Amino acid sequence: MPAHRLPRLTSLRPFDSPGYFAVWLGALISNIGTWMETVAMGVYVTQTTGRAEWTGAVAALSFLPAVILAPVGGALADRFDRRAYAGLGAILQAALAAVLTVLAFRGQLSVPVIGVISFLNGCVSTLTYPAFSALLAELVPPEDLHLSTSLNSAQFNLGRILGPTLAAVVLQAGGPAWALLANTLSFFAVLVALWRVVPPARDANAKREPLWDGIRRGITVARDDEDISLVLAATFFVAALVAPFIGLVPVFAIRELGQGAAATSLLVTCQGAGAVTAALGVGTLAELFGQRKLRGYSAATIAVLAGVYWLAPTLQVAAVCIFFLGANYLVLMSSLSASCQGRVPRELQARMGSLYSMVLGAGYALGVWFLGALADRMNLRFVTIGAAAIFLALVLTTRLLKPARFENEPLAQAEVQPFSDSAH
């Protein structure tokens, strides 16, 4: 059978769009390096300090800038050439990774230095990721936006599979410096991909809003749209109460399960494997249940899966649990992200993506630090299971108070007027 006549999964349809696969592949290579660095630094901080609070704090520092800078990043991405802007971000992140690499090879690595670099890297990522996300959205037709978001999450999680596996080998063979070097080099894949892709032409005659007016407009649109407001609220609570399972993997593996770097890599890898598996089927699930019902089901089940994961008595059981937890997490978060961008015109998609990133970063930074700090003073399992139970209660309460938001209805695009002088 000719290759072009082979059956294709609905979820893979964005790969048919010109340029999408090149950018997707470049991001995958970069994320493999990023996860090598994440595992290496997580193990280093946990073993150096022995405190969950420090591990959570360092993880939170990379997300904290989103609380302030995300709306700025979204407005800038809607003003400038998104390809060039995303490329600048990749260059700056490569430079920060290179600083860590040099310090590691010279034996001058320390927890405070890692914290500072994590914070600066979070600043760069927050300011430039909306441009990258909006660029991917530009490369596919509107009906494939959710599939594009899911595949973008899939490549991130495929990096989560390959990166920790390579990190375990590299850490055993040469130490953290070599993992950091791999991350530094991986950013060049993004630059090559961006150089090769040709995004759709933008309207050269379109008027540009002043920066702060653009930020305010994005916030106003999100506030006035009930669906977007509910999605952003859900994003915050899942980030604060459930998502910290990601940053606290080293603590769970080392303190609760009595393992080390290899176990940490295994759990992170299994989470990524679950997410990639879910990404292949999310298109079919969305067609079967509808976007809203799928989002409601995944919001309820993620709390249950998180509780089961934290109760796992052995590494083997934890690995199976985090596989399903990772799958559920991808379905939920890709649906939330696509809902934000899918309800507005393309001129506002970067701003909606940045608000999503702001809420996600704020919730995760608060949650991973606070739960880590509580875990140092109380039992880790008790703290994290309690947080998952609170999230489940919030979901069920919302289901009772706003049942229409869980019905199987198509999400209509928000009616937003194009920018004009008369609007201000």
TrEMBL record:
<keyword id="KW-0813">Transport</keyword>
<keyword id="KW-1003">Cell membrane</keyword>
<feature type="transmembrane region" description="Helical">
    <location>
        <begin position="112"/>
        <end position="132"/>
    </location>
</feature>
<keyword id="KW-0472">Membrane</keyword>
<feature type="transmembrane region" description="Helical">
    <location>
        <begin position="20"/>
        <end position="45"/>
    </location>
</feature>
<feature type="transmembrane region" description="Helical">
    <location>
        <begin position="380"/>
        <end position="401"/>
    </location>
</feature>
<dbReference type="Pfam" id="PF05977">
    <property type="entry name" value="MFS_3"/>
</dbReference>
<feature type="transmembrane region" description="Helical">
    <location>
        <begin position="294"/>
        <end position="311"/>
    </location>
</feature>
<feature type="transmembrane region" description="Helical">
    <location>
        <begin position="260"/>
        <end position="282"/>
    </location>
</feature>
<protein>
    <submittedName>
        <fullName>MFS transporter</fullName>
    </submittedName>
</protein>
<dbReference type="InterPro" id="IPR010290">
    <property type="entry name" value="TM_effector"/>
</dbReference>
<keyword id="KW-0812">Transmembrane</keyword>
<feature type="domain" description="Major facilitator superfamily (MFS) profile">
    <location>
        <begin position="19"/>
        <end position="405"/>
    </location>
</feature>
<feature type="transmembrane region" description="Helical">
    <location>
        <begin position="317"/>
        <end position="334"/>
    </location>
</feature>
<feature type="transmembrane region" description="Helical">
    <location>
        <begin position="230"/>
        <end position="254"/>
    </location>
</feature>
<feature type="transmembrane region" description="Helical">
    <location>
        <begin position="83"/>
        <end position="105"/>
    </location>
</feature>
<keyword id="KW-1133">Transmembrane helix</keyword>
<feature type="transmembrane region" description="Helical">
    <location>
        <begin position="177"/>
        <end position="198"/>
    </location>
</feature>
<dbReference type="InterPro" id="IPR036259">
    <property type="entry name" value="MFS_trans_sf"/>
</dbReference>
<feature type="transmembrane region" description="Helical">
    <location>
        <begin position="355"/>
        <end position="374"/>
    </location>
</feature>
<feature type="transmembrane region" description="Helical">
    <location>
        <begin position="57"/>
        <end position="77"/>
    </location>
</feature>
<dbReference type="InterPro" id="IPR020846">
    <property type="entry name" value="MFS_dom"/>
</dbReference>
